[in-house]
Amino acid sequence: MRKERPVNLDIGTIRFPLPAIVSILHRISGVMLFFVAGLLLWVLDASLSSSQGFADVKACLAHPVTQVVLWGSLAALGYHLVAGIRHLIMDIGIGESWKGGVMGARLVFVVSVILIVLAGVWVW
Amino acid sequence: MVTSVTTLGRSGLSDWLIQRVTAIIIAAYTIFMVGYLVANPDLTYVQWVQLNQNNWMRIFTLFTALSIAAHAWIGLWSVLTDYITVRLMGPKAVPLRIVLELGMIVLILAYVVWAIDILWGI
C-alpha cells in the first residue's frame, strides 16, 4: 500500500462551521467530564463517610477556587447534556437538513449559555 | 477484516446504541441530583445519608456509574482513534494510542469499583 495515498478529507484545511464547533466542544467537554467524574466520586465518598466529612465537603465547596472548578464542571456537564440531547433529537430525524443542523447548533449554544449562567448563580 | 479490539461493544452499531441508552440514564440521574440539591439548599448529613442508603437510590447511582463507565469508554475511544493516528503523528501513534486506551480502561474500572465501595459502605 502506498504511504502517501490521498486522504479523503483533510480536516486541517477545512473551516469549522457552527455544527462542527458544537461537535468539537461536545468532545472536549466529554473528556473533561471523565475527570470530573473522579472528583464527584471523591465528593460522594467524603460527604458520606461521616458528619465531619460532610462538613468538610461543605466547607471546601465554599472556597473560591473550588467554586470556580465546580462552575467549570457544571458548565461542561450542562453543555455536554444539551449537545447530547441534540444528538438524540437528530437520531429521531429532526433537524438533519443543512439548515436544521445550523439551527440546532445555534439552539445548543443559546440553551447551554443559559444553563451555564444559571449554574453560576447556583454556585455563588 | 480489521477488528477493533479496544472498543466496548466490538461493533459500531452496538457502541452507537450503548452510547444512547447510557446517555439517557446519566441525563436522568444528573437532572434528579441537580433538582434534589437545588430543592435542598440546607441539606444535612442525615438527609444525605438517608437518600443514598435507600436501595433504589443505590441502584440508580450504580446504574449511572456503570453507564458513565460504558459511555466514557465509547466516547474516549472515539476521540483517541480520531486524533492519535499514524496520519497525524507518525508510527509512534499506535503504541501511544494503545497505552492511552489501556490507561483509560484501568481508570474506568477503578471508578466502578470505587462507586460500589462507596455505595455499599454507607
Walk me through the structure.
The complex is a heterodimer of chains A (124) and B (122). With 124 residues, chain A is an all-alpha fold. Chain A has one domain (17-123): Fumarate reductase/succinate dehydrogenase, transmembrane subunit (3 helical TM bundles of succinate and fumarate reductases, Up-down Bundle), CATH 1.20.1300. Chain A contains four helices and no strands. Chain A has helices at residues 18-49, 51-61, 64-91, 98-123. In chain A, helix 1 (18-49) runs antiparallel to helix 2 (51-61), helix 1 (18-49) crosses helix 3 and helix 1 (18-49) runs parallel beside helix 4. The longest helix of chain A has 32 residues, at 18-49. Chain A is elongated. The mean pLDDT of chain A is 92. Chain B has 122 residues and is mostly helical. Chain B has one domain (10-120): 3 helical TM bundles of succinate and fumarate reductases. In chain B, 80% of the residues lie in helices and 0% in strands. In chain B, helix 1 (12-39) packs across helix 3 and helix 3 (55-83) packs antiparallel against helix 5. The model of chain B has no long low-confidence stretch (mean pLDDT 94). Chains A and B meet through helix 1, helix 2 and helix 3 of A and helix 1, helix 2, helix 3 and helix 5 of B.
Over the alpha carbons, how many angstroms does the gyration radius of chain B reach?
Answer: 18 Å
The proportion of strand residues of chain A reads under 5%
CATH class of chain B: Mainly Alpha
* Global shape of chain A: elongated
Morphology call of chain B: elongated
User: What's the story with the biggest beta sheet of chain B?
Assistant: none
Look up the CATH topology of chain B. 3 helical TM bundles of succinate and fumarate reductases
Percent range of helical residues of chain A: over 70%
Distance between the termini of chain B: 48 Å
Kindly report the name of the CATH homologous superfamily of chain B: Fumarate reductase/succinate dehydrogenase, transmembrane subunit
In DSSP terms, counting alpha (H) and pi (I) runs of 4 or more, how many helices of chain A? Answer: 4
